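Reviewers asked in the last cycle whether our approach scales beyond single polypeptides. To address this, we selected a multi-component target totalling 649 residues and predicted its structure end to end. The input consisted of the following lines:
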Amino acid sequence: MEEDGWRIKHLIFGFFTGAIASYMLLSSPYIGNESAPMLMIFNFLFVSLIFPLNGTLKTKLSMLLIGNVTGLVWNNLFSLFAYTVAYYFGEVFNTLYMILSPIANLVWIVSFWSISLTALANSRNTRAGVKA
Amino acid sequence: MIPPPTSTTLITLCFGVLIFIFIMFLPALLELKKPKDAGPRMILNDVAVLQQLQIVQKIPIANMEEDLRFDQTVVKKIANVIAMLPNLET
Amino acid sequence: MITKLLEVFFLILTALMTTYLIRHFIFTLTVLKNAQKRKKAVTVENTTYQPTVSTLIPARNEEQVIGRILQRMTELTYPKDKMQIIVIDDASTDDTGKIVEEYAKNYSYIKVIHRTSKEWGKVKASALNAGLKYAKSEIVLCFDADYYSQADIIEKLVAEFVDPKVGAVQGRVTVLNEPQNIVTRLVALERVGGYRIDQQARDSLGLIPQLGGTAFAIRRKLLESLGGWDESILAEDTDLTFRVYLAGYKVRYVNDAECYEEAVENWRAYWKQRCRWAKGHMQCAFKHSLKVLKSNNLLLKKKIDGLLLLNVYFMPILIWISWIISVLLFFSKPPQWLNALLTTIPLSFYSFVGNFAPFFEVGMGAYLDGRTRACWLIPLLIFMFLYNIVICTKAFTDLLTSKIFGKHTITWDKTVHSGSGNSYIMK
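The resulting structure, written as structure tokens, was:
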């Protein structure tokens, strides 16, 4: 029970931070229609699955913050790209955009999530005395 | 109102998107090119079983299961000792 | 009118995909929660229940790997007087038969059955049924020829049979030739998600852990009462799983009972293997979906899980259909609420990355296995997923063609094993 206490504490902190981040994102006028749900999904998955793992709260919160920034950068970059290319190529690009956006929208989540997981696994194994 | 984009903006954004996608896949490409965790993962308890059977065999893997709370430092030492011994099976 | 219909269809598909995604999320959380608990593992010392065990090893042209598994069988810690090993040499044209004969000469508990090219049934189930006729033990164990088990795997598998309601027990499969190339590395990740999380969670939640066709044990009497393996089904393992459940028994998954396998080494072999799995699974879906719904032996949660499991290979097809619909709807200027739903499509896509395990499931499995940088390869599973969409679509059209035109297009494309895994075991 003692051992599980910190996990619950980390989860509560994580959800609290994730909720604040999601609220800020939703109320921001600079965020696109697709970006907000994507970032909320990222925050939910990241907090619920990464925060109960071994590792310091500081590391996890930093990762969550970096993840949100990465997501914002990507979504704004991709929206601007879509707007610009559509301006030049019109409807043809719009079709291409719709086909590719499901993959493009989540690529960063998978990459960022897997790197964060590796970082936590590395710190766990180092503490246990095993080199990866 | 967003101003109409110029061709320079278009090229910059294309590069930006490509670079971002490349960065996202970079860790995967790095791990493929220079693997640091290529596996195979060691199947559970084999070290313990080999000890029981006194069968000495080198298994070039070092991933252990967290569930069983193996003392990994001890396992590593045992694995080193096993690796030093001659192979009785050949 | 057409737009309205498309909207409704799109909604149904989204709901279906979200259901699968939530299911995988629950699985991951369950395993993560249980991983913190200590549990007592079955070892050679604390084993008390030791029934007799017949091991069936079907082998067709397996000269590269058959010696490895037979050698391992002789090293198992289970009492040899309670073991019977039956190798079914399924009309091999290479030296498989000779190698097995050599072992049979030296070890009395190893028996070989040679099948001629006339007897060869072209499916694995046929070879297994041939072997079953010679099995005399209480428990029947199955291994493919390319497998390499833990020395104490039998103790771990049979321990579950203490419970009379347990009909079959599945062990864990780990890829042996993982370092070989990108295909083997990605298949290894799929396996981690599939076994470490998916199977483990289904067992913990009392759902339907699936028999994987190898590294599993089943009560002989139950198997015989079910009529052995169904030779008309390509996924004879999934078929058997559901027949066991419908007969009122349950299947357990033992994560600690581990076995190495040699994974497919190139995209072509991956295509053949997965096409066979997809066809077989779809056959099972047609055969069992209704029976599962009507069964009095299954609880509601098992019925739901069973249906989701049976129909999982249809999902990649439904995904590309929903993908196309979402593009059509985008141009028909959909209402705001539907526009927001379009974003759930990518999420659902990722729930089927790899072998139908979402990225977080694979990642968490790798983490619990103590893996580190292997997780970096997870983004590459998107290519496996796209490949699986084509594979499942091809499998479905093949199956449909054979149903409509009565053409027999269902053939067993056997996976060729090169023995590349030997270098990771023998020094």
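The CA atoms of residues 363 and 376 of chain C lie 9 Å apart. We regard this as preliminary and will revisit it once experimental data from Aim 1 are available.
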